[in-house]
Design goal:
The protein is mainly alpha-helical. The longest helix is centred in the middle third of the chain and has 32 residues, at 83-114. The chain has one domain (13-224). The protein has helices at residues 13-35, 44-52, 54-77, 83-114, 128-159, 165-192, 196-199, 203-206, 210-224. The model is unreliable at 1-10 (pLDDT under 50). 33% of the residues are buried.
Length: 225
């Protein structure tokens, strides 16, 4: 018995195969994050440049791990698979393999900017138009991934009605959290497509701080009610 949710961790062979496939896809996404666009090292300077990309990799790895952890949590809540949840899981695999490309571009650009130009990534975008489209693509991909997670947890909450109350509450709370994340990704993409980007090019990135704020507000309201 799982002590946090009260759900039995039984897995059918079909469930194990699906979860293993999803895990492998996330591992491949991490590999793309590291080696995507890189050339074989030919000198110490190349090694130094590769090591300088570690902060950007850490940022990207943390985000991919966050989405992987969400699917793992959902899998713990609902060991039973349906055609719908299988479709959503495969959609998560497709979305994360697309998401890794704008993630890598933004991660390296952000670490270059934050480090004052010390870290590599300064030549990845040549104009505000490039930055705008990257933010839009990233925001839409982030919203799609978050929306898929929200759909998975919503399905879990419906399946758990009449069952374990702790598991039902967990499914509902996670569905709300990922719905907020999906809305935030769309807000960021919308900001990036407006003239606000020219005034504050950092604003679409800062917009993701709405996620912890929104989750905090919802949690506070739930506690009061």
């Amino acid at each position: 018995m799982d002590g946090s949710t009260g759900v039995k961790p039984f897995r059918t062979p079909e469930t194990q195969r699906l979860d293993a496939f999803v895990d492998a896809a996330f591992a491949f996404a991490v590999s793309l994050l590291i080696i995507g666009g890189s050339e074989p090292l030919q000198s110490f300077a190349d090694l130094a440049t590769a090591l300088a990309r570690i902060p950007a990799f850490v940022f990207g790895f943390a985000l991919i791990a966050l989405f992987w952890s969400a699917h793992r949590t959902w899998s713990t809540l609902t060991p039973v698979r349906t055609g719908w949840t299988t479709f959503l899981s495969l959609a998560v695999v497709f979305a994360v393999l697309v998401f890794v490309f704008p993630l890598r571009l933004l991660a390296e650009t952000a670490t270059h900017y934050i480090s004052g130009g010390v870290l590599p990534g300064g030549g990845l975008m040549s104009s505000l138009t490039d930055l705008s489209w990257t933010y839009v693509i990233y925001g839409v991909a982030f919203a799609v991934l978050s929306g898929l997670n929200a759909a998975l947890f919503t399905h879990a909450a419906r399946a758990l009605r009449g069952g374990e109350p702790l598991a039902l509450r967990a499914g509902t709370q996670w569905a709300t959290t990922w719905t907020i994340a999906a809305a935030t990704g769309l807000i960021s993409a919308l900001i990036a497509s407006t003239p606000l980007l020219r005034i504050a090019p950092w604003l679409p990135g800062v917009a993701y701080n709405l996620i912890p704020v929104g989750v905090g507000v919802v949690t506070w309201r739930n506690r009061r009610s």
